[in-house]
Every structure is written in structure tokens, then in C-alpha cells.
Amino acid sequence: AARLCSGTRGEAEAADGEGAMLRHLARKLRASGPVTVAEYMREALTNPGQGYYTRRGGVGESGDFITSPEISQVFGELIGIWCISEWMAVGKPNTFQLVELGPGRGTLTDDILRVFKQLASVLSKCDVSVHLVEVSPKLSEIQAVMLTGGKVQPNPEDKSAYMKGISKTGIPIFWYRDIQDVPPGYSFYLAHEFFDALPIHKFQRTEKGWREVLVDIDPEVPDQLRFVLSPSRTPATQNFIQPEETRDHVEVCPEAGVIVQRLASRIEKDGGAALVADYGHDGTKTDTFRGFRNHKLHDVLSAPGTADLTADVDFSYLRKMVQGRTATLGPIKQREFLKNMGIDLRLQVLLQNSGDTATREQLLHSYDMLMNPEKMGDCFNFFALLPHHRLVHPDKKDKPESKSPLAPVAGFNELLLK
């Protein structure tokens, strides 16, 4: 399931031509000493020449991992319904930006756009646009083919977006390398399996206090990497460990903190919401850093650049980084969120409309993958950022009876189907 919750170790060594990243890292480590796990991840995943996402980006059955939107169209459809439900709950603003961070192959956005087309009468007076934040040239090409049929053009006159096109359903789509380049405005930000691939720092409690886990060359085996502990406190140790921390091993993702702060300040200023769906925990787990290659667990230090590297998202850290700018909901389990969104009803409709046994079996199989606690149902969590006024009326304290009750937030409560 997705990047499997459990599995066996994959191939240990890269094939010919795949050792370039290891050679690059070995030279770097010999010249300047050990690097943080965050720096190792950044190099292995996004190095312009040999990084995993820039070179491979293996989403899907033929790649290294598969994601929920690839398993069932229902997943993306329900996210689309969630966006429209929230848009309606705040009075149907006349512009609506769908922003996806790290959109993979574009499957999630494609499923959402299909829902938008089916509900075109509801959105008829709204100016809808799609904004994709993608660093991988290879993946942005795949997204362009899926969403526009390949009808895109580079965007040199507007430096913020590097590419633009029109979706098959007639909605403008823009591509950016950084969330800061996305224009301000009422937006829904989606981050599905995005935060788990951001670089983490790892820390270990020792008798001498906290030490950072670093990556270094193994002196016994040239061209093999190993973990070592920093001999003294590093700047990251001083900045990222909370004084009240009780765990002995901690992973912190400062980049996730920065991005969630940007999302919170945008939502505070312009309205909208952010929906995060990812592996994660609420400040309880310790060592979750792992690699995936060909749908199997892969040694994180073996053949860098050829495997996806990931770590569970610490939702308690994201909540802390929001710093009260917005309200937060969750994390709640994926199966609970999708159940609240009406996945059972949607499954029944699809089963009734499917004419053959193979399709029905596929629908039931994908439902099981998404909802079974042993598969993806409990591995994944949903977490949302919403403006405070979405959950509490500004004048409620003074005149409790003056306003109608607020509509519940779909997914985190049951969706009110009208």
C-alpha cells in the first residue's frame, strides 16, 4: 500500500550508471566530513543531475511506490467534494484556486477536475484555476500530458510560473517551482504525500545530551555510507529540540515547518484551507526514516538517488508551527475521513453502475486498500488548516443567538449531503 507500511528490503546496490550520486556524495564527504540526514535527503532526492525526483520520480505501478489517487478514482473525487463543500460553507467566493504541492503524476488533480466538471452548474459563477508546485521536470511533463493532453507552453513573460496550459475541462493550469510563486487569493492547498519526502534532521539522546545523527563514509568499506553521531551539539540540535521532549530519538523537518507557516499566513490573509494527507503521527514516533524501491523497503543509505526516501510527518510539530494563525483539525485516520466523506455511498453507486464482474472486483479491492486498517486505512492521516472564523463566529461570544450554526467541516465530521 502506497509506500508500504511493511515490506522486505529491496536490492542493495544500484545497476550500472546508477552509482553517480554515491560517487558524488563520497567525494563531498571525504572533502568536508559528515553531513546531516537533511542534507543527504536533499541531495538524494532533488540533486539537479542525479536526484531521485529530478531523474526518476517513480510514482505508480511501474515505479517505486503507488499512492491513493492511483489506486482509486474515488479518493480524488472525495477530495474534490471536500473543496467544494468548504467553498460553499464560507459563502461561495467568486475566485477559487486549487493549489497542489508535489502533484505526482497529476492523478489527484485530474480526479478533482472531473468532479468540478460534473458540478459545473454549482461553480458556474466562480473563476477556477489550478496551480501546481512541482520541482521535477520529468513529473511536470507527465502532469501536463494527463491534465491538458500535452497542450502546454513555457511561460517566460511571467517569471513566477514556468509553464501554463488549459485542462481538458477548460480550466487554466500553471506550474511553479516554489509555493511562494503561487499568486495570492482564496485557495485550497492540497499536500498528499508531500511532507513525508521533505528532508528531516535526526537526533539521538545520549549520556552527554542530544546529538545529531549524521551520514558519513564507512572507513572500513570505501564507497559505503553509514550513520554516525555528531561529537558535540550542532546548530540544529540547539534549534529544533523542544525542551519538553520525552523521546530518546527525534526526527524534525524544519522545511515542513516553514511551508506550513506560509500556508497558514496565506489562509489567514486570503481565506481558503489546506488539506494534508500523509503518513504520520502526533509526536509519538521515533525512527521512521525509510526508503522504497520497486514497491519494497530499501536501505536508506544504499544506492542514493535510486530510491524514494521518506519519513512520517509529525503533525504535532506542524500544529506548533502554525502558531495559532489558523485553526487546525486532525490528524484523523484516512478510513475515518473517507467514511465521513461518504465513500461507502459512492462505492455503492459505482458498483450498481458497473456492468462486469472484473470492474466490481477492482472497485472492492481498491476500497479495501484505502480503508483497511492493515493497509492504508490507519497508515495515513488527514490534517487541515482553516481560518478561525470557519469554526467560530467572530461575534458569537457577544450574541450567541445572532448567527445560524456553522456547517460542520466535511471529512472531520460527516458530510452533509444535500
TrEMBL record:
Compartments where located: Mitochondrion
This protein's GO CC annotations: mitochondrion
One Pfam family in the UniProt entry: Methyltransf_28
Keywords: Methyltransferase, Mitochondrion, Transferase, Transit peptide
SUPFAM superfamilies linked: S-adenosyl-L-methionine-dependent methyltransferases
Stored Gene3D superfamilies: 3.40.50.12710
Superkingdom assignment: Eukaryota
Matches recorded under InterPro entries: NDUFAF7, NDUFAF7_sf, SAM-dependent_MTases_sf
Enzyme nomenclature, EC number: 2.1.1.320
Family: Belongs to the NDUFAF7 family.
Protein name (record): Protein arginine methyltransferase NDUFAF7
Organism annotation: Rhagologus leucostigma
